[in-house]
Design goal:
seven-stranded antiparallel sheet, 15 helices, 13 strands, 32% helix
Amino acid sequence: MKTLQKLALGTLVAVAAVGTAGWFSLDKETRGLLKTVPTNRDLLFWSDAQRDAAFRALDRISLLAKWNTAQPAATARALPAGEPLKIDMDVDAYMQEHRVAALVILQGGKLRQERYGLGFDGDGRWTSFSVAKSFTSTLVGAALKDGHIKSMNDKVSDYLPDLKGSAYDDVSIRQLLTMTSGVQWNEDYGDTNSDVARFNNHKPEPGVEALVSYMRKLPRAAPAGSRWLYSTGETNLIGLVLEAAIKKPLTQYLQEKVWQPAGMEQQATWLLSKTGKEISGCCVQAAPRDYARLGQFILEGARVNGQSILPDGWLEEATHKQADIGAPGRGYGYQWWTYDSGAFAARGIFGQGIFIDPKRQLVIASNGNWHKAGSADNPSYAAREAFYAAVQKAVDDEARAPAQ
């Protein structure tokens, strides 16, 4: 059974180790935390201490050293303080045991909880990993509203002609967003022969985008639309489709449609691939409060001056089950993990997340560096779900309490 917890690093598996020049350009705190410079290209084998430092400075320490920047709003959206939620659990112990770097809880548009760990604070930026997938999905919706993409039923090969004749020739944008292409893909980070590992060493054909060169060789395993399979490679394809449609870098579009209109306080950076394209399945660096603001923006319907940046009904589809992932009560929308309760979440490996519960007007943004990455037996996944449930209960208890 495909596990709900099988999240993706995507091409970040190939993010290069810290170079000497990059090491000395880091701030004192980061250099102190990093202890020894990682020499292994695969961050899955870095120590906890190395990841603690790297995750707050991934754009600065990569040998790739290339990213695009989304500038913040001229005036940041205020997050007015509310009464602290009375959560029926030891939050500090939860954060310590599961190595949580940041927790920002908004409820009713107010800041109800904000805590930090791992020596991190709200002035820094933490990497998103696959939380970026939900950013990319939102930009696809904006491109539909703007007329850059005609229909969710458009074929991927209409935008990426080099995919014609491949298994992706009859795959729609909708099927990419729901990860139901039916194309064969292996995202097992422990398997050196998996697609996610082999892609990083792929030598592209002359004149063909590296990702397209690899993906167009993949065989079909099931009819398009017939089964769900988690594939960061396909989210990266979505990014290429989107850039071909909007004819500008994804970061620029993010700044125009989301980052500035939503009132973000700090800049965000988005790591680029070897060919200079945003790694759309991964790798946005942003401040914890801005991740929470993104959640609030989505919760409020992605509206700017009263008008949604998304087509009518699109966000409802995006955040509700479009694909069965084999987990009771859960599903997958358009690059959002869904709950049958109506809640939904953006999720990234090592503890990154934005949980949104419209019923309770609740947003929980979290960053972390779990001891383990994506695996079915990782206790941190269950612990985070229990934390979400405890916060939901706190909101419900407060609503039931008699007025003072």
